[in-house]
Structures are given as structure tokens and as C-alpha cells.
Amino acid sequence: MSFVRTLTGDIDPKDMGFTYSHEHLVCTPPYWQERGENDLLLDDKEKSKQDVLDFKKHGGQTIVDATAVDYGRHVEDVQAIAEETGIRIIGTAGFNKSFLWAAKIPERLKPVLGNYETFRQWIDASSINQLAEFVIKEVEEGLEGTPFKGGQVKFGTGYNRITPLEEKTIRAVARAHHETKAPIHSHTEAGTMALEQIEILKEEGVDLSYVSFGHMDRNPDPYYHEQVAKTGAFLSFDGIAKIKYAPESTRIACILALVEKGYEDQILISGDTARKSYYKHYDYGLGLEYIIAKWVPRFIEEANRKGFDGERLVRKFFVENPARCFAFKK
């Protein structure tokens, strides 16, 4: 029997409803905090909560919070938002990309991670299996020593390269997946290195249908997307509203190209809303309501114009596909 693990308990996948597949709700990444990058610090639970309520007002039901331990999770605040709004939120165990590991480990995490100075020291000093045990514990017992359990496991790599420590975390997450059956999420910097990540996951015996690859729209290459889709993995188009990277027409064209090739069951959509300036209630940005209230109607119109059933595809991308992607299949 399959289930989805949220911060407020396990649920039936069919109860997820309309889902954003990759967001960040309350987080203060140590790397950016040390460098004074205030825009990247989502440090006000009440403001984040107001954006979540905007999402709910338009019919949203579930959010995947993709914040890993090295990106400054505020587990209790995010869980409280779930309790107070009624939105189901999935938490994330695992790791992000390696340049973030230069940051010092906050004192509050040292009882959990050990008395290391930086994340890099911790990952370097730990074996693959020790890192896997850490991830397993976050899924089965709770994130950062809380009782709130992770609902997916994550790894990440940098732009056009995979460092030895990143490979170590990929293998650790793969082994944690085998133990827990938790779904896997990959951070790909600017949409690169997914195929190389796939080779490592294959060496670890991972069924790629358990894996979602993030930031695919940062690399708007239909041929590349098809190579990833052929493995059975999910592709996350999670840069909606980020026009500085590409216009929405480019993202929609890439999504519909995959649909034409028969991969509509493997597409996820979200916003990766990780800056104050992206949030409505922090800094007057488009906010968490943008995709469900503005982008979805545009997508339906464009898809219909091209001969597709836009409403059916929206249900696929935001309801049916997340229900399969984020399920633990025991």
C-alpha cells in the first residue's frame, strides 16, 4: 500500500489534491546568511503563511518544501504553517549542492550532525553509509531531531560538474531510498548533469520512476528533456514566473513538446519560490498564488490552442503526477 508522508502525518496519495512540487517556505540558508544576502532569507513565518493562504484560497492543497538540512530549514515553523492553514506540506531529508557546504554549521544542528565546523567537514568525515543513516533517521524518526518526518530524500550537484562529495551524497541518498522507499528529488544546477546523476543512481540500483529531477526548465532543451524522460523519471519545471531565466512561452513549449512525445505522466510544475522578492507578503512579488491563479489559465489557453486538452493536462501535472511521484511504495 502506498502513502505520502507529510509534516502532519501520512496520507493517502489521492488526498494530496492540487500540489506545488518544489517550494521553500521558511528557511535561512547559512551560506547566504553569512554573506548578508537578505533576499534569500525567508525568515518570517507569518509572511510565508500569508502566501500559503493565498495558494489555498485559489484551491491549492499540498506543497512540497524542498529545503534540505544545509539550506537552513525551520522545521517547526513550516509544520506550524501546515497545522494553521490546513495545507499539507511535505518535508525534505538529504542534501543540496556542495558550494553551500562551505557554511558553518549552526550551533542548533551540532547535536544532530556532530561537532564539525562546516557542512563540508561533516560530509567529508562521514562515510556514505553514515550519511545514509542520517537521511534514513530524518525520514523514519524526524527532521533535525523533531518528530516531523521527511517525505522525500534529496541530493544536488553544481553547474556542469559533480564533485566527489556530491557523488558521495547521491550514493547516500540512493541507499536511504532503498531502506525507506522515500521518493528521491534531485537538484540540478541550471538544469545540468541530470544524465550523469542518472548513471550514479543506476549503479546504486535505483528505479528511476522514484526520482524527480528539478530545474529542468533552466535548461530548455527538448532533446535533453527527452533523454531524461526516457528513463521513467519525473521532470520538474519549477521556475515558473522567473522571466529572468526564460519567458513562459519557452517553458510551455518545452512542456508541450514532452506531452507530444508521450511523457505527460512525468511532468511536475512549481515555482521554487525562495526569495523575499518572489513572495507577495515579503516584498510585493508575484507570490505563491501566481501559478495557480495566473499561470494555469494561460497554460490551459495555450494548450487548447495547440489542440491539447489543457484542463486535463493541468490535472495531470498538479494532481495525478504528484500523487504518484511523492508516494512511498511499500
Tell me briefly what this model is:
The chain has 330 residues and is α/β, with parallel strands linked by helices.
Report on the architecture of this protein:
There is one protein chain. The protein is α/β, with parallel strands linked by helices. The protein has one domain (2-329): Alpha-Beta Barrel (TIM Barrel). The chain has 13 helices and 11 strands. It has helices at residues 30-34, 45-57, 75-85, 110-113, 119-125, 128-140, 164-180, 194-203, 222-229, 248-260, 280-283, 289-305, 310-325, and strands at residues 2-6, 9-11, 19-23, 62-65, 88-94, 150-157, 184-188, 211-213, 234-237, 267-269, 328-329. Helix 7 links the parallel strand 6 and strand 7. Helix 2 (45-57) packs parallel to helix 12 (289-305).
Average pLDDT confidence is: 98
Number of domains: 1
The helix-strand sequence is EEEHHEHEHHHEHEHEHEHEHHHE
What is the subunit organization of this protein?
single chain
CATH superfamily: Metal-dependent hydrolases
What structural class should be given to the helix and strand makeup? Answer: alpha/beta
The residue ranges in which pLDDT falls below 50 over 5 or more consecutive positions are none
Helix content: 40-55%
Q: What is the fold-level CATH name, i.e. the topology? A: TIM Barrel
The level 1 CATH classification is Alpha Beta
Per CATH, the architecture is: Alpha-Beta Barrel
Number of E strands: 11
Could you say which overall geometry the principal axes of the C-alpha atoms support?
A: globular
Major sheet: arrangement of strands = 3-4-5-6-7-8-9-10
Q: What's the helix count?
A: 13
